[in-house]
Amino acid sequence: MPEAVRVVLDTNVLLSLFVFADSRYAPLRARLEAGGLIALTDARCLGEFRRVLAYPMFSLDDDAQGAAFDSFARHAAIIAATADPVPLPECKDADDQKFLEVARDGQARWLVTSDKALLKLARRRKLAHLFDIITPDQALEFEAAA
């Protein structure tokens, strides 16, 4: 069995996997649940996910919010900040910086995102020596090739 891949999933990806159950990404969720992916997070990222789940636009009652949060949290590894971190470029969207920090501090292989500001950093390849910033579709391609 291949070694588990350490990943950071941003909030939009979590919504696709745990709220909308987007069938395109079902293989990612299955791999996460089977232990083939290790989802890295921290208190800030978990807090954002919990907060976003409560947005009125999603019309999720308390039980549905709790179920989505718990489904992710039971498969997540909470990491601590590194004592002497490698400097990171600043993301245009300051709210996304935490995902970069978790990926760095947790020694992730991938930061999986649909966020334009994060994907712009990926195109500039400034973080390639630490981790790759990829879309969910790219993650599926890499998973299929593994």
Keywords:
46% helix; 7 helices; globular; 5-stranded parallel beta sheet; Rossmann fold; alpha/beta; 146 residues
Describe, in short, the structure shown:
With 146 residues, this protein is of the alpha/beta class. It is built from seven helices and five strands.
Write up what this structure looks like.
This protein is an alpha/beta fold. The chain has a single domain (5-145), classed as 3-Layer(aba) Sandwich (Rossmann fold), CATH 3.40.50.1010. The chain is 46% helix and 13% strand. It is built from 7 helices and 5 strands; from the N terminus they run E-H-H-E-H-H-E-H-E-H-E-H. It has helices at residues 11-18, 26-33, 43-53, 62-73, 97-105, 116-124, 136-145; strands at 5-9, 37-41, 76-78, 110-112, 132-134. It has a 5-stranded parallel β-sheet with strand order 3-2-1-4-5, with helices on both faces. Helix 6 (116-124) links the parallel strand 4 and strand 5. Helix 3 runs antiparallel to helix 4 (62-73). The model has no long low-confidence stretch (mean pLDDT 89).
Radius of gyration: 15 Å
The level of helicity is 40-55%
Tally of structural domains: 1
- Average pLDDT value? 89
Compressed to H and E, one letter per element, the order equals EHHEHHEHEHEH
> What is the architecture at the second tier of CATH?
3-Layer(aba) Sandwich
User: Which sequence of strands runs across the widest sheet?
Assistant: 3-2-1-4-5
Distance between the termini: 10 Å
Which topology does CATH recognise?
Answer: Rossmann fold
CATH class wording: Alpha Beta
Uncertain parts: none
Number of helices: 7
- Helix-strand makeup class: alpha/beta
